[in-house]
Structure formats: C-alpha cells, structure tokens
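In the design runs reported in the main text, the only information available to the sequence generator was the tokenized backbone. The following block is the verbatim input for one such run; it is reproduced so that readers can re-run the procedure and compare outputs position by position.
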C-alpha cells in the first residue's frame, strides 16, 4: 500500500513590528483514515439488506483537510 507524505516548510516572512502574527495553512484532501477514503461503511438493516452508512468523521467525502495555525512571537516572549 502506498503512503502519501506532505511536508510543511516553516519560514518567518511578512512579519512587521506590533504583536504576534498568526498564519493559517490548509492542506486539503487527505484520505480519511476512519473509512479508508470510501466515505461510507456497509451496514445491514433488520431485513438483512445492505446499505451505505455515511462515515461520521469525513461526512461521506472520504477526505479530510488539515488546518494548521502557526503563531509567530519573539523567542524571549514567554507571555500568552
Ligand atoms: Zn471517512
């Protein structure tokens, strides 16, 4: 089974004086590990009929997006 790996390069840029700066990065379309990217699970009802039940994690899309927040601050800034 192949495995996808993505890398984030972190570089301070566009930072100017006056407070902390938050960056938000999105990495879209990762395969949902709960349903292996199917988006559903096969279930059986009381009549033994099979039906697709939507994956509760990816809501049927089969994909997940990673939203990464990075907060920049001075190294000697220990406050919150
Ligand atoms: Zn899923």
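Verbatim output:
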């Amino acid at each position: 089974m192949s495995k996808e790996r993505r890398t984030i390069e972190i570089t301070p840029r566009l930072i100017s004086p006056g407070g902390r700066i938050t960056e938000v990065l999105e990495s879209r379309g990762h395969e949902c590990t709960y349903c292996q990217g199917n988006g559903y699970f096969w279930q059986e009802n009381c009549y033994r009929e099979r039906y697709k039940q939507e994956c509760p994690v990816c809501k049927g899309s089969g994909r997940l997006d990673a939203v990464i927040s990075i907060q920049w601050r001075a190294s000697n800034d220990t406050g919150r």
